[in-house]
Design brief:
The chain contains 19 helices and five strands. It has two domains: 189 residues, Growth Hormone, Chain: A (Up-down Bundle); 191 residues, Growth Hormone, Chain: A. It has a three-stranded mixed beta sheet. With 464 residues, the chain is an all-alpha fold. The longest helix has 34 residues.
């Protein structure tokens, strides 16, 4: 796409090429760092209620049964927030929606600290989840549009590593805060920190590719490019002398809404395959992490061994996430993630046959978790690279929203399967088939994705 001033002409300045050919500068590292911190806050606030639940039931005299909807409300909010926020971000900007979403889950968390009713807690946790669900895809989109293409997957995966870190930090913080300051202090901390992040996010520029596509004023585009030039006087001079800008990306043949673009003939198959893979991945993840201790216990393992084995599943997630991201920047990214799901399936097949040997069980659980977490986290970068700028946030957010439904399905399916009498080997073998479906979906996507092409649209700068 091209944006040009009506009175002057010059060779079009390729914005994406400029970003791709230069090393990361301080402002780009700041964007990555702040989004990393946002995801830490996301993880902290998502997990917070689980950590305070024991104290909450005691202090407010709430039954465990009544607390169930409060615990699940955040997951409903996550599923709803993402698909609503994505299309809005494709219209008004990634930065604006990201700041709004951070403020929303921050204020909701602060309000929980002063809530005294089960209904109020449920509503506020729903709003917390909505804000977190809206923040995730916009962090993904903003970072993916500000970093070089050849480093995008690794850096987006690195950013997403903040989410499990935040969830883990929530446990340690709660263990210290609750005995000393009470359960409300967890939500005060979880709400205060994001407010500070929202203020820092105001310092960031809007996505430059988004500004070009949406015909923002040329001076704003120049200002953002100058900020990421790293003090390079030659680059700054070139930016100042340019009056025409373009981005090289997938040429979309659909002019409708961002969401309609996802299901247009050009993108329909890639979109459905992304949704299928992400749905299956979260179904697998939540079924296994939610029910594995029970499955192992029913199979004869001690409570201690069941806990140890289950803890190994997410332990290798960081290794898998960073390795997949590194590899995706070097070979076909869709095939890398498909292979990761395939490795997960193989590990699960071996896991289903290892229930009698605790050592082999632990090894296979660790390997399955490493591959599974690497594949699932890498789906964010993969979806961001699939769509053009005008529908990128929608593409990422709708995949996340559909995937959350898979997570809910997995958590519920475990109880149904156990009630029906299925044992761990059969359930894990079934999950291997689920992982194969995810891998096959991505193989189909790899052959159905549209080719990259330059799309240029002359336009006159408008005011925002």
């Amino acid at each position: 796409m091209e944006l040009s001033a009506p009175a002057r002409t010059s060779v079009a300045f390729d914005v994406k090429q400029f970003i791709d050919e230069r090393p990361l500068t301080a402002i780009q590292w700041l964007i990555l760092g702040l989004c990393f911190l946002v995801l830490i806050a996301d993880g902290f606030d998502t997990a917070a209620m689980a950590f305070v639940a024991p104290a909450l039931t005691q202090k407010l005299s709430i039954s465990k049964l009544a607390l169930g909807p409060v615990l699940s409300a955040v997951l409903i909010g996550l599923a709803a927030g993402a698909p609503i926020a994505g299309p809005i971000a494709d219209k008004i900007g990634r930065k604006r929606v990201l700041i709004g979403s951070v403020i929303l889950f921050s204020l909701a968390s602060l309000a929980i600290a002063y809530s005294t009713t089960i209904t109020g807690l449920g509503i506020l946790r729903l709003l917390t989840g909505f804000g977190i669900g809206a923040a995730m895809p916009n962090c993904t989109t903003l970072v993916s549009e500000f970093v070089p293409s050849h480093r995008r997957s690794f850096l987006v995966n690195l950013m997403f590593y903040g989410y499990p870190l935040g969830a883990s930090a929530g446990g340690f913080m709660a263990a210290w805060l609750i005995p000393n300051f009470g359960w409300r202090s967890v939500f005060l901390v979880g709400g205060t920190v994001p407010v500070l992040l929202a203020l820092l996010l105001l310092l960031l520029p809007e996505s430059i590719t988004f500004m070009v596509v949406q015909h923002w004023p040329i001076e704003k585009i120049k200002a953002a490019l100058t900020r990421i030039s790293g003090g390079d006087s030659a680059a700054q001079s070139r930016i100042a002398d340019s009056y025409s800008f373009k981005v090289q990306e997938i040429a979309s043949r659909h002019e409708g809404s961002p969401v309609a673009t996802l299901l247009s003939p050009q993108f329909r198959i890639p979109t459905l395959m992304l949704w299928t893979a992400y749905f299956m991945g979260l179904l697998l993840y939540y079924l296994l992490t939610s029910w594995m201790p029970t499955l192992l216990r029913d199979g004869g393992s001690s409570i201690a061994n069941a806990a140890k084995v289950t803890a190994l599943f997410p332990l290798g997630g960081g290794i898998g996430t960073l390795f997949c991201g590194w590899l995706m920047d070097r070979v076909n990214p869709t095939r890398v993630v498909a292979v990761a799901y395939g490795v997960t399936a193989i590990a699960l097949v071996l896991l289903s046959r290892s229930t009698g040997a605790i050592g082999l069980l632990m090894i296979m659980t660790f390997l399955a978790g490493t591959a599974m977490n690497g594949a699932q986290t890498s789906m964010n970068s993969l979806s961001a690279a699939t769509y053009p700028t005008r529908s990128r946030a929608s593409g990422v957010s709708w995949m996340l929203g559909v995937g959350r439904c898979g997570g809910v399905t997995g958590a519920l399916a475990g109880g149904v399967l156990l009630q029906a009498g299925y044992k761990m080997p059969a359930i894990v073998l079934g999950l291997a088939a689920v992982s194969v479906i995810a891998a096959v979906a991505l193989v189909v996507k790899a052959y159905a994705s549209p080719r990259i092409a330059i799309e240029e649209l002359p336009a006159t700068a408008t005011s925002h």
